[in-house]
Amino acid sequence: MSNITIKVENLSKAYQLGEIGTGTLSRDLERYWARLRGKEDPFLRIGETNDRNAKGNSNVVWSLKDLNFEIEQGDAIGIIGRNGAGKSTLLKILSRVTAPTTGSVKIKGRIASLLEVGTGFHPELTGRENIFLNGAILGMRKAEIKRKFDEIVDFAGVERYIETPVKRYSSGMYVRLAFAVAAHLESEILIVDEVLAVGDAEFQKKCLGKMNEVSKGQGRTVLFVSHNMASIGTLCKKGIVLNTGIATPVLSIKEAVESYTKLLNTVVINETGFAGNLKDKITFNQILINESIGYNSTLKPSDPISLTVRGISKIDFKRIVFIIGISCNGIRLFTLPEHINGRILTAGDFTVNFNLAASFLRPGKYTIAIGAWGETDHDWIWGPDLSLFEIGEVWTDQIRKQDEGIINGDFLRIK
Amino acid sequence: MKSLTEEDWDIEIKPGNNLLDLKLKDVWHYRDLLLLLVKRDFVSFYKQTILGPLWFFIQPLFTTIIFTFIFGNLAGISTDGLPQPLFYMAGITTWNYFAECLNKTSTVFKDNANLFGKVYFPRLIMPLSIVASNLVRFGVQMLLFLLMMLFYTSKDAHFIPNWYILLFPLLVVLMAGLGLGLGMIISAMTTKYRDLAFLVTFGVQLLMYATTVIYPLSTVLDKYPGYAWIIEYNPMTPIIETFRYGFLGKGSLSWQSLGYCASITFFIMITGLIVFNKVEKTFVDTV
């Protein structure tokens, strides 16, 4: 007996770049001619990987290339990757919105996919009418919707507005109603694309709770795409990392998140961001956050934060004090020197480490500034807002008043 | 949990579609969606209006008045001895149904690209719902036509409905099939290159003049016997002629041309289904 619900074999998807217009007709004809003669498609042959930063010579790009993996029933799988790595394409193929170029996917059971909330909502119709319409679009039978109607309305919390056209809803209500319909689908497989980015924190928690219940409680298979590593970490047991259209096999979620964070570029610092008279003597090249998490990366509150700064100095220093500053919403939270009295530095490459305690920053976005001062107070260099990291929200059942604020108050307590 | 074997796949996603696999079972499963879409079209049509569904009446009514004035009185085109408004109304009501089916179906991919790009459901549901919701509209307009017949009967106008009125359901099926089939062919052909869409918008309008909407077939045969074949080969002509013959007793009924119309419709319908089925899988990438 095998428990495999989704089996992906040699799955590839090619997209055509550029505009479709008069120029493409001749290529289409060429393609057709090649097929007639039983030859390979001349425009698909050039197998370039999908690196959006590099300039390619063909205008066909492989968004997914030779994917092979199997997903077992009841697994909650996180699909992780940078923007443009092919996550959405994969979900689109799995939810049968578009077809692959080659390869196949075999699926057991019904699929409900939530690539966007509120697809097919008609603004003129009332909440009630839209629940039925949207449910039917997602594949529910009318009787099924009727049975779950109260539950849906209750989950969305829009009972008072149920007879009002949805165009009069606030955007939050709209999203809540839409998610509620999708969340009550009876399907063996649930595919969710980053729909949780909308809605307020409380509703996001409710959604994650619901998805947790779906995967853990009901034994359904969940595929979940998000950039929020913290929520992927709590929701999923396994993960797949996509990079330029190539996927890793199914990994444990810890391995997946690690391999994803290694993938991300470390921040390469732009020299023009610095001020001060040491600008010509010291160059900072990189900031590494927790080994290799780069720009725009998400950490868990329980992660210790280690910042590594690399650079080159042109001259020797008898004393130099490296400092970092962490800001949130433009307010400097603290400034931290490497060593209070500084250190000796010889010309050449240098590395500076800062280690910050875990769970003292609350969820939010933080920017990093780095700098140094030299032998006198007049020698200095400073670069604000060079990099950014995010402490992701950890989804607990309730938000507590005691958990508010930028810094964890526990740190201030005298022990 | 029931044991699942390797061969038990419910869904297999592959690059191409089997041309003849129309997934009618899938369509049947989504029949509730079809009904809800029809309801959506109907309800959203008259939301925030005062006259509500009455608006369905107004368009054919005004068109009839204008046609009566221009073609009946100014141009003096024969109406086979029938009261002019009744003659035009018969043509307009039927023609509108066909034209609406064709127009809306031919842009079905473009209009629903956003929806199709996010959820899977059998794509065929959309054109079917268009045909069905236009049927509701057509039904309402038929009511107006019947009211008008009553009105003229009370005024002793010369027309006698006959038993061929029973062909009406067949005529509706033929019109729906023709509009749906042609629309699906056009929609499939316009997913990548939209040129054809421009042709459709004014082409349908022009086609009306090549159909016996504003003149009877007998007049054409009379005046331009050399060109009458253009009108006769138009599959909509036998439908409208039979409709008039059944309801109003004037017009021409020929089993031969009706048979011709039915086989053309069947052919177009099958072609439409196959082409539609071929493009529906990947049109999202190119539309």
Per-chain topology:
The complex is a heterodimer of chains A (415) and B (287).
Chain A: E1 4-16, H1 22-36, E2 60-72, E3 76-81, H2 87-94, E4 102-107, E5 111-114, H3 127-137, H4 142-156, H5 171-183, E6 189-192, H6 201-217, E7 221-225, H7 229-235, E8 238-243, E9 246-247, E10 251-252, H8 253-263, E11 267-268, E12 282-289, E13 297-299, E14 305-313, E15 317-328, E16 331-337, E17 343-345, E18 348-356, E19 364-373, E20 380-391
Parallel strand pairs in A: 3-7, 3-8, 5-6, 6-7, 13-20
Antiparallel strand pairs in A: 1-2, 1-4, 8-9, 8-10, 11-12, 12-14, 14-18, 15-16, 15-17, 15-19, 19-20
Chain B: E1 11-13, H1 24-29, H2 31-46, H3 55-74, H4 84-106, H5 108-111, H6 113-116, H7 125-154, H8 168-189, H9 195-209, H10 217-223, H11 228-233, H12 236-248, H13 255-279, H14 283-286
Helix pairs in contact in B: 2-7, 3-4, 3-7, 4-7, 4-8, 4-9, 4-12, 7-8, 8-12, 8-13
Describe the structure in your own words.
The complex is a heterodimer of chains A (415) and B (287). By secondary structure, chain A is α+β, with helices and mostly antiparallel strands. Chain A has helices spanning 22-36, 87-94, 127-137, 142-156, 171-183, 201-217, 229-235, 253-263; strands at residues 4-16, 60-72, 76-81, 102-107, 111-114, 189-192, 221-225, 238-243, 246-247, 251-252, 267-268, 282-289, 297-299, 305-313, 317-328, 331-337, 343-345, 348-356, 364-373, 380-391. In chain A, the strands form four sheets. In chain A, strands 3, 5, 6, 7, 8, 9 and 10 form a seven-stranded mixed β-sheet that branches. In chain A, a hairpin with a 6-residue loop joins β19 and β20 (380-391). The radius of gyration of chain A is 26 Å and the shape is globular. Chain A starts with a strand and ends in a 24-residue tail after the last strand. Residues 1-5 of chain B have low confidence and may be disordered. With 287 residues, chain B is an all-alpha fold. The longest helix of chain B is centred in the middle third of the chain and has 30 residues, at 125-154. Chain B has one domain (73-286). The chains are: A alpha+beta (415), B mainly alpha (287). Chains A and B meet through β1, α1, α2, β4 and α3 of A and β1, α2, α6 and α14 of B.
